[in-house]
Amino acid sequence: MGKGYRQAPGKGGASKKRKDGGRIAGQQDFGVPGSGGASPHSNLQDLDHVPSSVGGWMPQPRGPHVHDRHLTGTTIGKSVPLIDANWKVTGQAEYGDDIRLPGELIGKILRSPHHHALVKSVDTTAAEAMEGVFAVATGADSENSFGVLPVTKDEHAMAREKVRHVGDLVACVAAIDEATAIQAMHAITVDYEVLPSIHDMEDGLLDSEHPIHDRGKYHVGESNVQKRVFQQFGDLDGMAAAPYRHEADWETAGVHHGFTEPHAVVAHWDPSGRLTLWSPQQVPHYLHRALSSVLDIPMHQINVHRTFVGGGFGGKSDPFPHEMCAAILARKCGRPVRINFDREEVYWINRGRHPSRIQMGVFADEEGRIAGIETDALIDGGAFASFGHVTTYYNGVLHTSPYEIGGFHYTGARVWTNKPASGAMRGHGAVNSRCAVEVGIDAVCEQMNVDPMTFRLANLLPPHSRTITGFRITSTGMRECLAKVREMSGWDEKFRNLPLGRGIGVGCGFFISGSGLPIHWDPENFPHATVHLQCDMDGGVTVHTGAAEIGQGSDTAIAQAVSEVLALPLDMIRIRSKETDTAPVDLGSYSSRVTFMNANAAIRAAGELRDKVMKAAWEITGYHPDVLVIGDRRIYYRHDPAIGVSWLEAVHKAQADSGALIASGAYRTPPMGGVHKGAAAGLAPAYSFSAYVAEVEVDVETGFTKVIRAWAAHDCGKALNPLAVKGQIIGSCHMGMGQVLSEEMKYGRDGHLMNPDLLDFKIMSVHEMPEVIPIIVESNDPEGPFGAKEAGEGPLLPILPAVCNAIHDAIGIRIDEMPVTPDRLYKRIEQACKAQGVDDPLDLANPTYSASALQTTLAERAEAHALRDHQRDIQKDRSSYVNGVLFGFDPDIPPSEQIEGWRESITPSPEDLVDETKRAARAWSHVERRHRGDA
Amino acid sequence: MRMPPFTLHTPDNLAKALALAGELTDFDWVSGGTDLLPNYKWHLNPSPDVISLAKVQELNTLSPTVIGAMVRIHDLVESEVAHPLLRETAATIASIMIRRSATVGGNICLDTRCFWFNQTEDWRRSIEWCLKCDCGTGADCRVIPNQNTLCVATYQADLAAAFIALDATIHLAGASGARSMPFAEFFQLDGVTRNVLKAGELVTHVTLPETASQWNGAYQKLRLRETWDFPEAGVAAAWRIEGGSLTGLRLATTGCESIPGDHTELAMEAIADWDGKASIRALAEGVRKAVKPVNNTYFPPSYRRKMLRVLTRRALSELEGL
Q: With contact defined as beta carbons under 8 Å apart, do B120 and B167 qualify?
């Protein structure tokens, strides 16, 4: 078909004309100038990436999507390197510590050596008198509190009356160089009165003479309980009477994100008196708000710059005290102040995964249905709240999917202890509990003598259904994920068939694709994401977005969305996402929301821009936009491609009266969810689903576990960039495997964190990392941008239970702790030897499997459900489906009206709290001060 | 985090180095620096003077029976003339990047380790220091509390076990002359004292007996990851088989106590009455009993002791059939 239309600007094609001036049929007559670009000729439309619903060749097994009309075959669905990749690999990317302002001073933070102490006085005179010291600040300079969640603003830039963990901030200095700053820091004398400290999370449940925080009238008893959750839904009597049950008591250590880049910040009050601040932040908007309230200045006097981020994973998703310190010091001395953390300080600020004690009960009935899931989760919050209020919900509420369950009971509690604060680490609260659920499922399958794969396939909630607590499930690719990993791993041949020491296990994951409700209560329904586009006379498109590029590729995803709608090559799209002055507000990179919300906003904005340009093309060509096609830098008449104009020419025409073209798109979540307190937690406009199979080798003589291979299927709705999705899957496997096998924040006998460094915090090396086979499943989410859902956190969850279940397949030992380090597994092996009466672990029994009659029932049900789900996927079956249909209930009648003993409660009754062994439930035995009358 | 200030000396031959060492009262030797520099950065007993051996050429010999102290670990691994047991052991050390800089002498003289000691200065300030780095406070040991006479920091270097197993001799030199001794005698309790080096002395080289080539060996190392991690326990075995029977056997351990362990006596007893697998099991049990690790490394001591059995058995697996 030839080379395509020339795009070189300024060099017009002088096509032949007829003697009467008319156009010769078949001759091209493209407008001068072309739009320029790396490829000198327009590419033909790639119909393999244009959906069949709009005339392309891309098959759509799950039917059409509302965004099909936006797909031009340009970049969506193609593996492209991230647009900032070259900056990183050439070392030119500017991270937090690369920012150098003229006249900068170096800031250092003085930290508490005590776990818990009153700060009686801080004497900074010696430090202030030191040569080369320009500013010193203490808690006296940081009166206003802050915190990432509005409901728990329990932090100050520096300690006001007390320090709450070793490493807590006490004072800070800004000096001419690092050596002077360190010297000055050590010259500050602090008079502490040491208080008793608590280090075991169960001690946090007890009343204390010195609670770590004081919550005034909301304080729970006189204890260190920060947050309590209780949720009961469903047929709990049926659950209690279930014939098959597995109850486990999990202990999971805290882990850290281990990102390469330590925290850093540069603060500078510019000559007009505005604060400018650079930080590798996941949530620049929340930092913006916090700076305003801490420093007592309006938000419009602050510009937050998000630098390149060398890894966040939830460890850089809070407004931080060190950021406040830099701003306070810079205000005091009038010069820029840069603070850069060493690795140990990264552990002091922490925000890693909560250490947890989770009691998990999984119950199954005689028909192989899940009669219920019962969870009691106590999580160790450390010294501050951070995201913990939300974490306390996520440890339980996400158990209501992907399976259909008879009953759901969750008691959760978060306590303060004198440790570095836990926060929202990748997978946020769902990771440890999901592992326990998936292992529990395997255990009841063993009791029932059924295949855990088949069991799962026979118990899935279908597409377009509601969970027992009112979450709205739209697209789900769980079934396809399970089927794919089953086939690719050789599951049927290997399950319970491998020799002692070799094992295969399956685990599933379910995660939110963006939180349904924002954390700041917002009566005006402010958009969650806004994207502005600007196209000026050069034809390139500038995209303004507040989405924080933290290495996950958000800039690329948004660029791809815009590039796709406008059919422009990626290099004509430039992203501006680094400055709050110019970027429209985005809530931040957490809860896996960015692709879903920002790409949706970007599609809207790009559609608006496209429509303006198409209108101009109409004016030039005489053909209505309905019959125009937007192709590579050229808009042409659908039925005669020779008739058309270049992108640039159309843009210039569109600009004629208005100057630069601008367009705006926003995204808001649709209304959803139940009305009970806490109903919002876990709500999301879409969810991701994943199923992984891991094959392991366990050395029974030493307890060492090696993962040989992992098949990782993740339903991300649609892979906008398969390269990026596969990277996320593999990276998540690395992080999750580390947590299950080797990573832990180790606390010593007197409460000290013993391994705040990367030698003793054991992240897996390349030698331990197996081959991971990433498998992308596309369930075509109706509300996702081009069908896309998240792939940032969800891919982490399944690897933990897959490995735990594989270890059981290998050596018959049921895991209930993490990490399963060799010494811990060896202890279990010794116990198993004793129990089985063998001396040598090599003689341990190898688990076997022989299918029961129930297996046939499940296999048939799985097949029937596969048909059911497909009909719902392609919208042939639009009947309502609510959790409970599997148990024979009518989805159109409220369950409480048709089921005897149906429970729905978010406050425990005394009967609910009888079991003293349930830890989080004990938190409910306290009464808040306001209800005791002594607030 | 900043280095404490120190003066770096770079003598260009051994005589000058020893002379300088004789003059300075408080100094450290540095060869590859892969142990010293991280410890200095954390202010772990830094000295005001550091003498670098980088320019000293006389300590680089590498032959089947002579191994100079400045031989880089990586070169030892790659060498075709060095003893296979030394090459096998050296290949397990740290990571390839560290092995390129690290030296044999540095590995032999590796500072002892403990998780109360190998921490930043601010961290140790918060536990009020410890016996091995007390900053003049007379602080107690944090592993075995309420005493400040015995330091139990663990020796976590690999080569020593292989050298002991090969019956090596270690050679020292100082301003007042040279001396040598059987390898195991170089080490001396406790975790602070570490070895018999006198002020101003250094290790110059290690020699193996002429008969070393008749000995084969194996090294088994316990560590969580296949790179970076120090040995939580290490067993080196060397044996000589003549005419189908075992005529010599030597065993050494490392990573378990403040000094490496020489279990040659146990080994010699075993070959008097060698019975393949049974002897190996008995020997493994003997090694487990002989060693008393404490709780100051990554794995708990009980696990390390139990694994010594497994490590010993696996190191001697070639001898099962004899």
A: no
How far is Cα A336 from Cα A270, in angstroms, rounded to an integer? 9
> Is there a contact between B299 and A113 if contact means CB atoms under 8 Å apart?
no
pLDDT at A39: 78
Q: Other CB atoms closer than 10 Å to residue A21's CB: what's the count? A: 6
Tokens of A141: 């300079």
Sheet holding B202-207, edge to edge: B66-68, B202-207, B169-174, B177-182
A909-916: long-range pairs with CB below 8 Å, 24+: A912/A230, A912/A232, A912/A411
pLDDT at A896: 87
Measured distance between the N- and C-terminal CA atoms of chain A, rounded to whole angstroms: 81
B228 and chain A: CB distance < 8 Å anywhere? Answer: yes
Measured distance CA(A926)–CA(A51) in Å, rounded: 58
Of all residues in chain B, the one with the smallest CA distance to A111 is: B122
**Tokens matching residue A722:** 């398969």
Token output for A562: 């815009």
Report yes or no: B68 and B61 within 8 Å, Cβ to Cβ.
Answer: yes
Predicted complex ipTM? 0.97
CA distance A761 to A745: 7
Question: What is the residue whose two structure tokens read 């008198």?
Answer: A129
Q: Does B115 touch chain A (CB under 8 A)?
A: yes
Residue A128's SS3 state is helix
**Is B4 at the interface with chain A, CB within 8 A?**
no
Q: Do residues A667 and A600 touch, judged by C-beta distance below 8 A?
A: yes
pLDDT, averaged in runs of 10, over chain A (935 residues): 61 59 57 69 92 95 95 97 96 97 98 98 98 98 96 96 98 97 98 98 97 95 97 94 98 97 98 97 97 97 98 97 98 98 98 98 98 98 97 96 97 98 97 98 98 98 95 96 98 98 98 88 83 94 97 97 97 96 94 96 98 96 95 93 91 88 94 79 94 98 98 98 98 98 97 97 97 97 97 98 98 98 98 97 96 98 97 92 95 89 91 92 94 73
- Residue A30: the pLDDT is 45
User: Which backbone phi and psi does A197 adopt, to 5 degrees?
Assistant: -120, 155
Put simply, the answer to whether B126 touches A822 (Cβ < 8 Å) is no
The DSSP line for A214-270 is --GGG-BTTBSEEEEEEEEEE-HHHHHT-SEEEEEEEEE-------SSPPEEEEEE-
Q: What is the pLDDT of residue A16?
A: 61
3-state secondary structure of A23: strand
Segments in A664-718 forming alpha helices (H): none
E strands present in A595-686: 628-631, 634-637, 640-646, 661-667
A220, A222, A380, A580, B264 from A215: Cα distances, Å: 8, 10, 18, 33, 65
Residue from B121, B123, B288 to probe the interface with A (highest A Cβ count within 10 Å): B123
Q: What is the pTM of this model?
A: 0.96
Asked if the Cβ–Cβ distance from A768 to B300 is below 8 Å, we say no
Q: What share of chain A is helix, strand, coil (3-state, %, to 5)?
A: 30, 25, 45
Burial bucket for residue A713 (CB in 10 Å: 0-12, 13-18, 19+): buried
